[in-house]
UniProtKB/TrEMBL annotation:
<protein>
    <submittedName>
        <fullName>ABC transporter ATP-binding protein</fullName>
    </submittedName>
</protein>
<keyword id="KW-0732">Signal</keyword>
<dbReference type="GO" id="GO:0005524">
    <property type="term" value="F:ATP binding"/>
</dbReference>
<dbReference type="Pfam" id="PF09084">
    <property type="entry name" value="NMT1"/>
</dbReference>
<dbReference type="InterPro" id="IPR015168">
    <property type="entry name" value="SsuA/THI5"/>
</dbReference>
<dbReference type="GO" id="GO:0009228">
    <property type="term" value="P:thiamine biosynthetic process"/>
</dbReference>
<keyword id="KW-0067">ATP-binding</keyword>
<feature type="domain" description="SsuA/THI5-like">
    <location>
        <begin position="33"/>
        <end position="244"/>
    </location>
</feature>
<feature type="signal peptide">
    <location>
        <begin position="1"/>
        <end position="20"/>
    </location>
</feature>
<keyword id="KW-0547">Nucleotide-binding</keyword>
<dbReference type="InterPro" id="IPR027939">
    <property type="entry name" value="NMT1/THI5"/>
</dbReference>
């Protein structure tokens, strides 16, 4: 009789439907690329599913829209940039930084090795290509001042997003806004060799290149905590098993199986936040001070109004 009851119990468990996963939408900052490796690995290797989540990753039609859409309740999480978050807060968007994706700067200034520029002091009188004014101007201005130059010592030329072609064709002498994990490889594949100068080595305080933000009134949603737990597990897996993770990435996005993305994948690995839910408050305060000093924001927002640490 006892054996019969146990069999019925086991049968009941088998027939009980699995709990439905909680659905989430994550709006990316750009088309899928190796910067999004923790998200792709969490989805493809089952870390989101393990935490009861079904996550949809959405590429933006306009890179400026994801934070605005999340602020409007049209998405659970957006991937954006730490510098941009201060501007979004100043605009009044109800956003909170909930975690980190890439916790070092990727932005840098690049010249061609073997040319007339061997140090930042050599930039005097040179043409600098850029894609987006504002933050990149501030970065360059700080780097120049740190080396005894002024912004007026260089000529800024908008090359749109053609940084590498502009540099390789010698339309400009250097470019600001190049990502160290992409443009340097692009230059190499085009037959050149890039010489990079890193903002954090020339007076610019450290910052997170990519972060996760959510609407203020959704920060305490239990799904957010599950999401960050899955991302942390995926990041550790990614670092411990880079080849396996790369295989999952190109299986999901076969069009990205090329030398540029494979090299970027390896170069981005050490830059991912190992504990994405952690927050370095001092670092965010220091960068807020930098944004104000460079005239990008009118006042430094209280750190508690736009960041949180979900435990």
């Amino acid at each position: 009789m006892i054996r019969f009851a146990a069999a019925l119990f086991a049968m009941a468990l088998t027939l009980t439907p699995a709990a439905a996963a909680d659905k989430m939408t994550v709006l990316l900052d750009w088309f899928v690329n190796p910067d999004h490796a923790p998200l792709i690995v969490a989805k493809e290797k089952g870390f989101f599913a393990k935490h009861g989540l079904e996550v949809e990753l959405v590429e933006p039609a306009d890179p400026n829209l994801p934070p605005k859409l999340v602020a409007a309740g049209q998405g659970d999480i957006a991937v954006t940039y730490q510098p941009n978050l201060y501007l979004q807060i100043q605009e009044g968007l109800p956003l909170t930084r909930i975690g980190g994706v890439v916790d070092t700067p990727l932005n840098c200034l690049v010249a061609l090795e073997g040319g007339s520029i061997t140090s930042l002091k050599d930039l005097k009188g040179k043409k600098i290509g850029y894609s987006i004014s504002g933050f990149e101007d501030a970065l360059l201005g700080m780097m120049l001042e740190n080396n005894g130059l002024k912004a007026s010592d260089v000529e800024m030329i908008n090359v749109n997003f053609a940084l590498t072609p502009a540099l390789m064709s010698k339309q400009v002498d250097a470019v600001i806004g190049a990502f160290r994990n992409f443009e340097l490889t692009q230059i190499k594949l085009a037959g050149g060799k890039g010489l990079a100068f890193f903002p954090e080595e020339h007076g610019v305080p450290l910052y997170d290149e990519l972060i996760y933000v959510a609407k203020n009134d959704r920060v305490k949603d239990p799904k957010i905590k599950k999401f960050l737990a899955a991302i942390q597990e995926a990041t550790i897996f990614l670092i411990n098993h880079p080849d396996d993770s790369w295989g999952a990435f190109i299986k999901a996005y076969p069009k990205l199986d090329d030398e540029l993305n494979k090299t970027a994948w390896a170069q981005t690995l050490p830059r991912f936040a190992k504990t994405p839910a952690s927050l370095d408050k001092t670092r965010y305060e220091n960068f807020g001070d930098f944004m104000k000093e460079r005239g990008l924001i009118k006042s430094v927002p209280d750190i508690s109004t736009f960041t949180t640490e979900i435990r």
